[in-house]
Amino acid sequence: MNECAPSPATRLSAALASLDAQGLSAQVSTSPSVLETHSHGEAMDAACLPGAVFMAESTEQVAAVLRACHANRVPVVAFGAGTSVEGHVTPTPHAISLDLSAMTAIEEVNAEDLDCRVQAGLTRQALNARIRDTGLFFPVDPGGEATLGGMCATRASGTAAVRYGTMKENVLGLTVVLATGEVIRTGGRVRKSSTGYDLTSLFIGSEGTLGIITEVQLRLHGRPESVSAAICQFADLDDAVQTAMEIIQCGIPVSRVELLDSVQMAASIRYSGLEGYEPLTTLFFEFAGGPAAVQEQVAATEAIALSNNGRGFAWADTAEERTRLWKARHDAFWAAKAIEPGARVISTDCIVPISRLGELIAGVRDDISASGLRVPLLGHVGDGNFHALIITDNTEPGGALALALDRKIVARALALGGSCSGEHGVGMGKLEFLETEHGDGTLAVMRALKNTMDPRNILNPGKLLPPGRLYQG
Ligand SMILES: Cc1cc2nc3c(=O)[nH]c(=O)nc-3n(C[C@H](O)[C@H](O)[C@H](O)COP(=O)(O)OP(=O)(O)OC[C@H]3O[C@@H](n4cnc5c(N)ncnc54)[C@H](O)[C@@H]3O)c2cc1C
């Protein structure tokens, strides 16, 4: 390192001066409360204040920020809604947090082609509210009030992935600002194309480390003619998991199949006022399609549930009741947090091939008993994906115990041919598992891509890729 090299603080000042010279100082904030909001995501433990926050309103402004930061070697951390849970948005000191949440325009809706183009800061809830009268909807539904850009960057999914897929399957194209400030478009509006490298997929899940997404071309879906929701309770967790596995293995096209174990269900009954249900392990189902198809799915699902000692279906007949049930499911994290107000909740996210789910959950249950911790379990079990919400006090030994359990659960999933994250992503929290999951050779290719696309390592440094040798070409 050259001794005369400017310090990180000097480089940040130079980048801000360059933005000021371009008439963009009104977009910059260094107010303590704004810096604090941008110092962490939902994982409060990994906070670090950025040097400044830039509130972007257009692709051109994002490009100006990246040009200034590239020239001055200033780290840039994209910030959508900050709901990610693995330390993704935690900046390095003297970084610029680039907030895209004001970029909420819907640029076009092509109802006849079932697609739309939106700015990256729009939330999926706002999109669905604004396109309601087209009869179309966007199905990917993570629990937080996330932005579509953030959802692309984490390759998010949710309760409807079992039927509609994740962000990977529902994004047709992107506008991306590269590290140098150059703007590119990937993909397009067509449903398939066999031309060139699939750069859209490369940016989906790249966690702000390869480029900043400013616009997203999304697939939309027709609202189904008929929707039914039901819940089925089980005295035994294994029976509920077996039911979910058999439903998927039989190819029943359920729209959603979600599990809440008895600890989570008790918390959700209290938090979401789910009167009339018992604190037992519960599967939430949704069926959609034409009335005859729905009836067929329901009959097949109910038969499987009953053969696994399910206590019968309780139907949510009205739209209001369905909304109440799914809101309770989406609020499960907050319900778990409310079990011990002020406690910390570590949300483990792992996924295995569906046939190994029973084995994984049985092992996890033993790990939880051995730990003595209180841990609600819930999951998008139709995908083989589940979360353990590890509740811990704010002491150091409590945190260490919780982290040890988290690591044990993830190691179990990897040993069963799974992945250390089904949907939350890597951020900083899952870095240590990447080598085991992907192997050296694959990580070397990922590092080579990063080096090519961001040679000055300004884009969300320290996330997604564990530090390691540079690719030797
Ligand atoms: C209660 C709760 C429930 C959740 N449930 C789910 C769930 O069911 N499924 C699921 O997948 N996740 C879930 N999450 C996690 C989180 O909501 C998702 O990871 C979400 O996709 C993050 O979106 P965001 O807008 O908040 O992104 P942020 O947290 O702001 O950013 C996430 C990452 O994306 C990068 N980024 C953000 N915007 C852009 C952009 N425009 N261009 C490039 N990079 C960008 C950031 O730098 C960061 O690395 C949940 C979180 C909470 C708190």
Automatic annotation (TrEMBL):
Its EC number is 1.1.2.4. It is an enzyme of class 1 (oxidoreductase). Its cofactor is FAD. Pfam families: FAD-oxidase_C, FAD_binding_4. Residues 224-464 form the FAD-binding oxidoreductase/transferase type 4 C-terminal domain. Residues 50-187 form the FAD linked oxidase N-terminal domain. Keywords: FAD, Flavoprotein, Oxidoreductase, Transit peptide. The keyword Amino-acid biosynthesis does not apply. The keyword Flavoprotein applies. Belongs to the FAD-binding oxidoreductase/transferase type 4 family. This is D-lactate dehydrogenase (cytochrome). It comes from Komagataeibacter medellinensis. The lineage of its organism: Bacteria, Pseudomonadati, Pseudomonadota, Alphaproteobacteria, Acetobacterales.
